[in-house]
Amino acid sequence: MASIDLDKVLDKAWADKSLSEILAAPVSALKGVSDNDGELLQEAFGVVTVADLAELKYARWAQALAALAPSAK
C-alpha cells in the first residue's frame, strides 16, 4: 500500500483530517493550490473536490503519458 506524508501535500488545516474528509475537501486543501486556482479548476473542468481532481480524465491521461516516457527513449 502506498503512503504519503500528508504534511507535505496538504495545508495544515487538513493534515489531521480523515481520508474521506480530505477527498471531499476543496482542491485548495492541497498545498500550493489557492482558492483562486480552485475556482479556475471548477470553471474549466468542473473540479470542486480533491476527489474530483483525482478522477479528472485529463490528469489521468497526462499521468499515463508521463509513465510511458521512460520507455520511449
Provide a compact summary of the structure.
The protein is an all-alpha fold and 73 residues long. It has helices spanning 6-9, 19-24, 35-45, 50-55, 57-68.
Structure characterization notes:
The chain has 73 residues and is mainly α. It has one domain (6-72). The chain has five helices and no strands. The chain has helices at 6-9, 19-24, 35-45, 50-55, 57-68. The mean pLDDT is 94.
Provide key terms for this protein.
single chain, mainly alpha, 5 helices, 73 residues
Overall geometry comes to globular
H-E order: HHHHH
What does the largest sheet look like? Answer: none
Any idea what the radius of gyration is?
14 Å
Number of helices: 5
Helix-strand blueprint:
Blueprint: H1 6-9, H2 19-24, H3 35-45, H4 50-55, H5 57-68
